[in-house]
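Handout, section B. The chain below has 189 residues.
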Amino acid sequence: MNISAVLLAGGGSRRMGQDKATLIFRGKPLWQIQLDLLWKLKPEEMFVSARSDPPWRPSGVQFVSDEPPSRGPLSGLSATLPRIRTNHLLALAVDMPLMTENYLRSLCNLIEPGRGVLPMIGDRAEPLGAIYPKGARIDFIAALSGSDFSLQLLTKKLAETGKLSLVNVLEEEGKFFRNFNDFSDFDRP
């Protein structure tokens, strides 16, 4: 697949009180689980987006700094899109360790020229497990210069302008998008 991939690992982890990326799930830190998953897709290039260069970042993975002040994933995606050499960027949050290779491959198979893929659970977008076209970088930059930093609003606009195709997440696939925001999430099946 001719895609680039970015692991979004810049969250403040306020509820956890420590860097989520380093928390252990099923014997591995979250960052390793997610990078291993992304490498299986054989992206042309791999990035990690965070506020500062993480000590766990492996060689071969490029660091992209959120432009201060950080606006969360919007900042990370805005900083990464201009750097990709391919036409599409697969974004994956570090705190979604239940995502699968098969599901991400199914999203990649829906890519069209100039158009990415946005999973939807009901009427809610899942922008942290999505694929963005390189041409969306101008929209991300515009969103950063505004006052609403919501990826929900931005992805809605991208879908309306044909830069994202919407794909409905089946009920049994919904678990792939479960965020680990609290220590209790690590104990749930």
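Note. Residues 113 and 154 are 20 Å apart (CA to CA). Compare this with the example in section A.
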